[in-house]
Amino acid sequence: MAGPSTGRPSRRSRALRPLAARLVFLGPGLGFLIVFLLVPLALMMSYTIFRRGRFGGVVYEATAENFGRLFDPLYFDIVLSSVRTAAVTTLIALLVGYPTAYVIARLPRRWKTIALIAVVLPFWTNFLIRVYAWVILLSGPGLVNETLTGVGLIDKPIQFLYNEGTIVTGLLYSYLPLMILPLYAAIERLDPQLREASANLGARPARTFASVTLPLTVPGVLTGCVFVFVPCLGNFVIPEILGGGRSIMAGNLIRDQFLKARDWPFGSTLALAVIAVLIVLLFLQAWASRAYGGTEGRRA
Amino acid sequence: MPRGRLIYVPFWATYVFLYTPIIVLVVMSFNAGKSPYVYEGFSLKWYAELAGDDTVRNGLVNTLIVAAGATVLSTVLGTLLAVGMARHSRSRLLDALGLLPAVLPDLVVGLGLLVFYATIKMTLGLHSVILAHTVFGMAFVAAVVRTRLTHADTSLEEASRDLGASPLATFTRITLPTLAPGIAAGALLAFTLSLDEFVIAFFTAAPTEPTLPIVIYSMVRFGVTPEINALATILLAVSFTVIIVAQRMTRLTETLT
After folding, report:
1. Which of A6, A121, A140, A150 is most buried, by the most CB atoms less than 10 A from its CB?
2. What ipTM was predicted for this assembly?
3. How big is the CA angle at A236 (ends A230 and A240), to the nearest 5 degrees?
4. Total number of domains constituting chain B
5. pTM confidence score
6. A276 touches chain B (CB under 8 A)
7. Domains of chain A with bracketed CATH
């Protein structure tokens, strides 16, 4: 195994080694990612400039009409409404996730690990089952209605299922951990002395939070928002199961272009739009991290 | 953040929100009654029903084959990649590429592969799902192993190199043994991820060979039955066990944050 270099290495083998090592270690993984991730993505992107054939398939004539169709109200309204649903979900996740992450970051070490694991655990279980659990909870004879009628808040069961609120609940349930983890990481890294200094200088806790803690954790806030917002856009299962298929989102639209309409070029164009949103958001996040996290970056 | 107890309200609300559905699901799986909503006493009959369900059993077998295959591939490729990235490269672009499968929406990854497989005219089957799951499994293994690498003491590796060992010998005799717990944890994560993965499998599996999540998807779309509760409970138990074991072996929480 040790090869020719167990003895005194010649000058030549010393020079060759780093390249050989790179090839051995990076080659297989990199090659795999190129073939099974980059090439498929590039292929999909190339379809965006072609046209759907009459019986499905692709006609290889360059056209820009797919991009024009993005703004057809038929599709654009769906995209807009799913952006709204995703944004509402992200906002709620942030409002609930920030204080949660804040409390976790201040827990004693032992409890911190347990609290973090408890946040991650549901995320690591079967996604469909987590969505399905809400069907049981929110249905007519389900637990939520039982509890509400039990305590006398309502007379008869409410139809919770199959509307935008249920979709937001399902999305929030699925992606809340993705908000809490980066927030926790950002808050955890904060130097406690900064807050102490602020307090010593006479700032009230609210003021310290607004002018010290919050600005320094902006990068974490943005990471969390990207992590929640993007998968919300691409989700097609939750609108189908919890939305009853009536309100569809961008994810459903994209899937249907591929599996039902068999319009791969337009489906690819819609997928490209989602990737474009992702890239814009990642750039915004990187930019804001540099703008806000500058002092932290220098210290590290 | 203002002091006081008010901040604990969203904290506890988060955990109640995260765990109520899971608890209800588990309790209902032991329901003696036919309704998936109303508890009527303890029974294991839905588990018995599940054991006799051929569709579920086929799905489970397919899923286990896929998860095993994807785990082996992900572990080998991911470990090599992690060592390469940490020790033999300083490329930011490479770091970004390694993270890409985790950042991209699964829908995009799945559709990209669907288009790719169709273009190269590859027949779909369990092998196409294995390759698809390796794309993200590898990224997670690489991330976990890298965390371990950055915590590892590099002096042993340096000593090995100074004594004239080749990079390969240093890797097999020094790096690999130090990394073993990280690699095992990464493999476990890749395994659970593949076990539960639905979207990418949905686009890359052959209709005749569905994985278990695809079977669950058609069950859930068809309607709510206590049998799904029993299946869900078993899957929850498996995932929970694996994650806790993985956490014990490595600093999983550090990798994730």
Report:
1. A121
2. 0.80
3. 140
4. 1
5. 0.82
6. no
7. 79-299 (1.10.3720.10)
